[in-house]
């Protein structure tokens, strides 16, 4: 047995925790956080890349560029389904090391593809699909950290892992616009010239400026290589959680096999969903997503073999528990909103506030004239995800003190109001020749939405840790995060479709209605007088 494998693990034993467990648990947590941060960065980077491709004059429509963020979103969500089972099959150290190292492939591949403006759309869509590995890592990371901590600290520990890990979205939205302004030691290749003004955290970058868009991918290599080494030498496998991980090479094969299987339903569903020339355009989103989830579970169930088959079957028991389903819906409200709005916000700012919305000679509203006073998406888009990630540990901490469901109830009510208000402001902006006047209200309400979703992320995970025992909490955490991650697909598609239809407000009115339904659901299951489990 390797020195990184721990056979005796008793976090609920106070003496063991203070003498041995605490030091090991926190070491694994502090390594897990930056690894997860890079996973989020690689997964979410297409939200920023798509905007810059538009600014650089890549030969694709706005709708085609929205597909890149949507593809990365659905791929990352689907990858979370097998990822939620990996820890118990392959071990925490083995899984986090390999899935972190795997991020090098989409990072380098994206950097190469972005140097070729003349490459077909499918080449960029393939890279977006591959970036989904970073989205999948969240489920395995959260399942892993959950096993290290006693129940009384799980809300805080999971809040730190997820909240600081979520900073990957903000880090990416700040770092990518910055690194695109410089050549890395002459290794970045040739620059391209901005056709439209762009921006970064400190303001606008004028048209005509040289830009190295390929650095959006290459930049992550600098952190991923040392991080992978840190995961390998500093993290642990818990034998009490994974008694049969096998040799690391065997564990790596299990991980690679299950992750590879996840691409099959994603590719099949995207082919049926996406319009020509990429796909057949046969399904709408609300059919495509359940189909993808069912197909991913079916593939896992049928393709598992040997001890893996028994392990998968055992973990499928979570689906017989009604609380798995109620908490899944509540986590869609929180994390689904956070990641969905993170993916959609940069392009939404560009399309709604970057153009003047004025009637033509026939009185038909047009949206093609560039707005000279437009706010730069790359200057402001990072603020919402930053706030949402920053308050997530606070949500976990408060929920450890007062209970998770009461916190979830409060933030759901806030999100109903904020989402409806965002819809109203978007409606005003999309009908105005000077949409920038509505931008402060829009950003203020979006930041409120992000803040509420961040607090709710912590409260929902606290509830999972209380309701489920240690053997089931990990898979439930992974499963709920997998379904919620489809928000990264739903939000860009829904917002993009409604903008195209001229009614962007309908997307946010729809979100508000969903939040209201889940507010009632949370009250029914966890807050009413006769609730089976009160305010977990």
Give an overview in words.
The protein is mostly helical and 536 residues long. 71% of the residues lie in helices and 5% in strands. The chain has helices at residues 14-44, 46-55, 62-90, 92-101, 104-113, 121-130, 132-148, 151-179, 215-218, 221-234, 248-273, 285-303, 307-315, 322-353, 377-380, 383-390, 392-402, 404-429, 439-467, 470-484, 487-500, 504-526; strands at residues 5-6, 192-193, 198-200, 203-205, 210-211, 237-238, 355-359, 365-370. It has a two-stranded parallel ribbon. The two termini are 38 Å apart.
Quick structural summary:
The chain is mainly α and 536 residues long.
SS summary, helix count: 22
Instruction: Summarize model confidence as the mean pLDDT.
Output: 88
What characteristic shape results from the CA principal axes? globular
Physical arrangement of strands within the biggest beta sheet: 1-6
Q: How far apart lie the N and C ends?
A: 38 Å
Helix fraction bin: over 70%
**Annotation, overall tally of beta strands:** 8
- For the CA atoms, what is the radius of gyration? 22 Å
Q: Stretches where pLDDT falls below 50 for ≥5 residues?
A: none
Report the oligomer: single chain
Main β sheet profile: 2 strands, parallel
Secondary structural class:
mainly alpha
Strand percent estimate:
under 5%
